[in-house]
Amino acid sequence: MATLEKIRSKSVLLFVIIIVALLAFILGDFLTSGQTYFGSGTTVAKAGDVKVDYTEYQNRVNMLNEQNRNQNVDADEQSAQVLNEILLEKMLHKEYKDLGIIVTDNELTQAMTGAVPHPAAQQFIMGMAQQLRLQNPSGAAVYDAMMNPQKYGLPAEISEPLKQAWADQEKQLEDILLSQKFARLVSGLFTANDLDARAMYNDVNTSRTVKFAAKGYVEVTDEEAAVTDADRRAAWEEDKGFYRLTEPLREVEYIVVRIEPSQDDRLAAQQAVEQALVALNANEGTADVASDSRFVVNNISATRSQITDAGLKSFVDSARTGQARVISNVGDQYTLAKLLGVTNEIDSINITMIGRPDGASLDSVMNLLNAGSKFADVVDGETVVGQDSVWTSLAGPNVPANIKNALTTGEIGRPFIVTDTVQGNPVTTLYRINCRHAAVPYYELAMIEYTVDPSQETLAKLSADLRTYVSSNPSAEQFSKNAAEAGYTVLTDVVGASSAHLAGMPDSRPALKWIMNADKGQIMPIFQDNKQTYYLAAVVKDVFDGEYMPWNASVIAEQINQKALRNKKAQIMKERYAGKAKDVAGYAKLMGVEPQTTDVTFSSTMVPGLGFGETKVLGNIGAAEKGKVSDVIDGNNSVVVFVVENEAAPAREYNFDEYANQFNRSLGIAGYGLQRQQKVFDMLKGKEDVENNSLKFIQSIGE
User: Which domains does the chain have, with CATH numbers?
Assistant: First the structure.
């Protein structure tokens, strides 16, 4: 069964080859203006020797787009997510191969057709068994029906689609089994041994009583610290690893102009709605607005209880037939309603329906029901089928007039037969009315939507104003300097090829591609998204193509400056106090603070009285000799002098299981976050940078 995917005909294979060749030709012409899509040109992304090919990437994107067609999903973010997922899958499969992790045919067979199928396959098997109407909903039964459909009264042609579905499920299950084996192996690498457990035991249960004096860096002003470029560079070197670049980046300054209606547009829209209301109230129906493309008309029929909008409910309570009114005006969206009429309909009726697929007479069934037989006694699901005690409505045009009349006037509790014609063929159905509620008013309403869109004049002005500004400020310095005076706001973003957007704006990857190919100081042509929701102007402020973000890059300038200030202030204060006293009390007096005493444990980076993240202070406390006054130490926010006054031995006995579990929770696989996809991705990737070529497969501005 594990080889079902290999069932392919040679003609199908030839057809696929031809289609792929044609696809490459079309893509080469229309997407890349001549770019080759075979060889290295088909690689959308790579990490080391793991590559993602354009075809598999685009197939996955298309599949998700189809699944999310009616949902508000950001297509660019979804595509970026797909690329990362495929890359992770390929890195995992490479790791499985390198480690020798496999799933045997027997394992896969047992997972699909064993006495207890794998949980990941159970829903598939139950669904298939239900569709095939198998009495035994097991994997073995589904497999047998797939291979021998005639044995189960199924058409022979159903076999191939079932085999494909089965093969797809096998592939998914194989991936799951591989990942479970890998997870067990990795979790074993992050499981505490005796040394780990004892270290955790000591950290949790050993405490040191510390007396300390601390003085905050606010004692030294920024002016006194007088940070230089050399200080800033040294601060950058100290944390250099944090500024390593995994891909080339661009710092961008940009202006976004939202495409919205002007006040003139909104005034014109208000006048159009008022004129429509006059016409709707003066004439029957909705012909006066139906012919105007700005108005969208949708007729509905509903009871008052089915209406959830408070404004519409108030309207039906007070409106007369033929009256129209504005129900809401939110933002640039008007909603109008017109009451077309009111009818009384049965909204709630409980019925039993019985039929015979072979078209035979239902008289005998009706006689049995009249004699007191139950529904389950006369319906076998094969020769006689039906539904019992179904609540439905008789309102609306979907119920045939003869059936509506029969169910409206029929005697409750007494079965009767109705014959109808469907596509020229007589269809006989037995009905029994179990319960029928009284008719209620149904309101026939025309719901009319009007959206205020920007006029062509507004679009032209927004575009022209922005183009004029850009042409009048052709340098990077002018672009930012003069924006406020012109009524624009300049924002900053840092982007790379793996960014889903430029400036966080949807549908902006063509602009992103232009930016990533631009030089420092270049101003991008005005960009408009496909949905016409914004105009975007941008300038490349800086280009980062090296291994690290430069120490003097403006995007990290404030962060680097604050680090340098802290270092400089710490240096000044350490020189000010170092060696000037013999004990903590003496240092506290010099600093003008009160000495504090606290207990410190080593299972946390918090030092009570100083705060969290004081790893340097905590490390010095752990290594300090009891009774010896420390040097002046630079903490996160203050300089600190301390002395260890006492050390409390563990009060609890060592228990391996307890502290091994605690280690695993905080420092094991859970602590490292390896149950999260991104952590696994980072672990497998190692030092390899991801080369993201996805921008090569889209059109840039002007292409």
Answer: 207-243+556-648 (no CATH), 249-260+455-546 (3.10.50.40), 263-345+445-451 (no CATH), 349-436 (3.10.50)
